[in-house]
Structures are given as structure tokens and as C-alpha cells.
């Protein structure tokens, strides 16, 4: 009986699935924003901590369609939202296997983008003067962010809500390769785990993990 239970637990790993990835929202920018708004609308309390428990959302496999992490800080909250949709991808946010990182790694691993060019799902990083970044929030469009930074619920705020703090934005295009044009080839990048292509797939023409490939036209 024990061997049967172990076999069932390993099945998703053997066949390429990832039990960390939530299925409540699509793995797109739109899905990421929908998940974030679901958390805000739930008004559920998250306890603020900068200790190890800030990764409780990922460590416990909590999905935003069901609940919120019992503990978090600003950067782990943003990372948790990304993980809930892209948990089967590498951690392009922090390069830390999803349970590490902070505002500095969010800044280091993202591509700078202006507010005019920002898209929903990009990350806003705040700081005072030339000091290191001290806060991170998720950009949701129309000059608004979803922010978590103290015990209580996550909130929808104006991007400039922090007095006396400047902000920069970062984008992480590797997460959003699916549906984009292939690089240098006529075709569309697809998730080969969920989408079939009538023509031979082309590797190396799409950003993202190895299961994102070019479906030529």
C-alpha cells in the first residue's frame, strides 16, 4: 500500500507535470492579474514577516483561487503570485528555485521598462533616494498596483502611493513567451504540454522553458 501511495505521488514528476503549479488561472499576463485581483477581493489577512515563513504560500502549495499565504513580505508575495501560475517554469524572477530572493533579485533579474511601456504583470520596485529597493508590487495597468507590505489584506493602489519614494519597473518576458511571434521565423510560440502543432516544431526560437517551442506557419 505504501509503495502504491509513493508511486501516485511521483506520477506528476515522472510524466513532466509539476504539482506546484495552480490551475485556477491561465498562465498568461491576464491570468496573473486575475489571480492578484482575486486575492485583493478576498480581503483575507496575511501576516507580515521577513523570516523564513514568508515563503509559506509556495512551501504549502497555496493557490490564490483558494486562499492566501499565512505569512509573506512584499517580494515573496509577488513571487508567490508568479509561482501560482508559472510554478513549472524556472524562477526567472529571483533565480532562486522559487523560495528565495528579495527586492534586489527582482531588480537584478528583470528587464527595465518605463511606465509608458509597462504591461500588467510587470513588477514595480520602490526606493528612497539612492538606497536599495525596499518594496515590490505587481503592476496591473492604468497606473495601479496590487501591493502587500504589512499585516492585513493585499490592496489595490495608485502606482505612486508611496510618499517620498521613487519607483522603477521590471518585466520578465521569459514567462510570457506563449502566444508571441517566434524569433526570426514565421510562427507562434506555444506550450507544447498543452497545445499541438500541425507542423514540425522549431526549438530555440522562443523565450521561456524548453516546453515552449515555435509552431511554424
Automatic annotation (TrEMBL):
SUPFAM superfamilies: Cysteine proteinases. It comes from the Eukaryota. Residues 1-16 form the signal peptide. Keywords: Hydrolase, Protease, Signal, Thiol protease. Gene3D superfamilies: endopeptidase domain like (from Nostoc punctiforme). GO terms for molecular function: cysteine-type peptidase activity. Transmembrane segments: none annotated. Residues 35-179 form the NlpC/P60 domain. GO terms for biological process: proteolysis. InterPro entries: NLP_P60_dom, Papain-like_cys_pep_sf. Belongs to the peptidase C40 family. This is 4799_t:CDS:1.
